[in-house]
Structures are given as C-alpha cells and as structure tokens.
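Blinded run. Sample ID left blank on purpose so nobody reads anything into the name before looking at the predicted structure. Input follows.
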Amino acid sequence: MKNTLKTLTAALTITLSAQAEDRDTIKLYALDCGTIEMFDIGAFSSEGQFNGQSATLADPCFLIRHPKGDFLWDTGLEQSLSEHQDGMNAGYGILRMERSLTDQLADLGMRTDDVEYLGLSHWHPDHSGNAALFTSSTLVINNREHAFMFSDEMKSQPEAYKVWGALENAKTIQFDSEHDVFGDGTVVVKYMPGHTVGHAVLYVNLPETGGYLFSGDLYTHAEGREKKAVPSFNFDKEATKISQSAFEAYAEEKGARIIIQHEMKHFNSLPVFPAYVQ
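Blinded prediction complete.
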C-alpha cells in the first residue's frame, strides 16, 4: 500500500512539474475550426478582380498559452458542423469541420471555461461561431465592435445574435486603439477597421520564432493582399485601405510573419495541432 501511495505521489509530482514547466513559456497552437469551399469569390474585390473564381478557405482558431493565462483568438465556424460528415451548403459555399473546437481543446486537457481570455477579430459568424461557449472567459474586443454586436439592431436578428449573445454580460475588456493582453508586449490586439466597424488584428511575439501578425479578415486570402483588394461587402472601403497600409507598416516594424487567417497555405504552414510553435 505504501509503495503504491509513493508511486502515485511521485507520478502526480512529475505531472504537476511538467504542467508548471509547460506554462513557463509562450506557445501558439493553430486549431482547425473549419473550412469554407467558396463557389465564387467575386465579392472579395469591389473591382471584380476575382469574379468567377472559386477557393477553399481555412477557418482557424488560435490558442496562445501564456504563463499568465490562455488566450483564444477567434472561434471559427459553429462546431455542430462537425456532426455533418458531408458538410453543409450555405448557399455561397460548402462549410466543413472535421472535429469540434471543444474536442480539440480536450486534447490539451482543457475545457472552454479554462480559457481566461477570448479575443474576436470581428463579429462575423465564421470568426465567432463558438463564442457563446466562452462565457467564463474575459472578452477582449474593440469598443466599437462591442457596441455594434450588442446593439438593438443585432438583437433584432436572433439567428445572428445567438452566436455571441451569451457574452453580453461576460467580463469584458473593451479597447480603443490596442490592448496588451498580458502587459508584456507578447499578445497585442490592434484596432484596424474597415471590414467591420471595430475589426481588429492580433500580434503575437514568441520566444523562439519571433513575431506573428494575424489578419482577421483585413485580407481574405493571399492574392487579395497582393492585389490590395477590398471586398465589396466591407463596412468601410476607405478605412480598409488605411488599415491595410497600417498593417503592412506594423508587420515591417515588428519583423512579423504575416498569417492571413483564411489563406489555406498559411494555415498549413503552421504545425498540425496539437503540435505548436514557440
């Protein structure tokens, strides 16, 4: 009995030590939160540069594990989609998801209420699809985007509002121009409007591989960035252009690697979950 107890105690000590060591550095995980097979991406340019073209878009979530807490950036497509093996036709394309977000978090021994901070680039449901699962997290969001998301206009659209409505009374950090999540410059959310009224991007500085700048939907795909395309459905086209210039300047200033979130090649260039980059 004593030997068994000693063995269990030793095992527990090793496990706790490993967990503590695991949280001593910053790690970035790219989770597969769906794909979108677009029939026609013509709307990705107000100048018609992509008319008639099709594309398969990645729809990732990004988990940053920091010694001071866990931060999830965007929540992808609504995870019930993973129950549909053949995907679902949304009219503009086929939506697919292989595994739910909660199942992927479970691979790391995590539940949704273990995530201390939730950041949303913007309200669109391919970026906020599972937001309502994170009512225990502190929501980090631009003040203009927050005002719109919880406005009477959005509340009058129950199918949209239900995606994030549960967060209305969640603990929230609203920012104007930027917010340094952990106060050390490693995880910074920056206001770059145009796609929506309070759209934001994310900068992450990792200890070994350096800076990464995540686009939200400032760019829809790599070719869109190359051509400086502005989608026809953006909230403010001129603000989008200004934000794109600011994004490029910030990336150069930081020497950051740009990750266009919907660009499949960029998603595939990151370690396959549950592997990570640090």
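Unblinding after everyone has recorded impressions. Residues 22-268 form a domain with the Metallo-beta-lactamase; Chain A fold (CATH 3.60.15.10).
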